[in-house]
Write a structure and sequence with these properties.
single chain; 492 residues; alpha/beta; FAD/NAD(P)-binding domain; 2 domains; eight-stranded mixed β-sheet; five-stranded parallel β-sheet; 14 helices; globular
Amino acid sequence: MTDQRDFDVIVIGAGVSGLGAAIRLRQQGVTDFAVLDKADEIGGTWRANTYPGCACDVPSALYSFSFAPNPEWTRAFAGQQEILGYLRDVSTRYGVDAHLRLGTEMVRAQWDEERRRWLLDTTRGPYRARVLIAGAGPWNEPLIPELPGLVDFTGEMFHSAWWNHDYDLTGKRVAVVGTGASAVQFVPRIQPIVGRLHLFQRTAQWVLPKPDHAVSKAERWLLRRFPGTQRALRTAEYAGMETLGYGFRHPWLLRAVQRVGLAHLRATVRDPRLRRALTPDYTLGCKRLLMSNVYYPALTQSNVTVHPNAVKEIRGSTVVGADGVESEVDAIIFGTGFHILDMPLANLVFDAAGRSLAEHWQGSPQGYLGTAVSGFPNAFLLLGPNLGTGHTSAFMILEAQLGYVMDAVRQLRAHNWPTVDVRADVQAAFNAEVQAALPTTVYNAGGCSSYYLDVNGRNSFSWPWSTARMRARIARFDPAGYTVRATEDVPR
């Protein structure tokens, strides 16, 4: 491998987003690019998250690139190892491996207006690129709450995304802080082996039955032998998730789905006091939708105590709840999610004047079509602000966005434009449109506090319309919304 440092395109991150960008670049004939990743292996969040029970929470048929369907999923909702295996396979199959620069962490990227290049500082020296594609993703940096006394905790402590497989939980007294998507998956796995499990639940979650099942060899043969069958399955599952998404935009329709959730809770939790503690007081969909057939049953076991409140502080080896109840524990596991809207990448990317993305955003991330940010020429964010949905696969969103980014790269190269920079007024108009549409969605009107809302109370995460509208809106790069530099403006 040559030690090339100057590229037409540099992609940050070798997870789903970065690999998707790399594949699409190769598909349209761009080979002068590199993919940088801080880890020594590809996979992003599916490489990092190895906690027990880790799996996707959308159907497997949707959790793949449309151009690289996988007929070999062994479950309707694939597990972490299978998803990581899929990503490794597509990386090799589509020729991405030769472009990877693993173990290379970007520590700073700044736009050089004179050279019209992105200048990158990394742990393996400098790089330069005409175009920067940021695919680090929002599920990148684990979030650990700042609890009083936490630094003095005398036991074992880790986040679900940094699972310590060397620590034996057998017979231990374990506190689980947080009840989001990861906790719903790992709690049932560790409950049978721990001595005592204390689950601290700040907010009750809506947990629906999970239509998961093993996919037989015969079914996999059918999907492999007749690709049309797999396309039909993907289409049907997409339609089902979009139906749910319609309810997210018209929250009153979600009452029927809530009845399913409540029936699931009643059927699995007989103790009325525990059931009351696990009953949400907000509209389903206001927080990320969770599915599990084993979470509620695990919480009914004799070695589990559900604390329906947040953690107040840590005193030595004692976890103190907001209600004052003290629990002596050997280990604390955080299932508290990630820095979603305060993503670390925003502190590492700078405009020509030296102002970071985080300084531009002031706590409220925004861009144009969740992809471009005014003042950052030739830079594109994947899975950026206000592209998130509560019902469909990240692959669906990503592919719509990649079409837009690839069209931008194609036009840049075809016209030999030095730079394209989205106009501030175009970006402002788009964000005003988004914010005007959000108040009637369940994300804003559901009556909860979620990671969809940033530190300023603004929803900087959610897309308020259908994914069909997203695909139509982001189908083509339109230079009319951008300040485009002509070739003759480039300094010699």
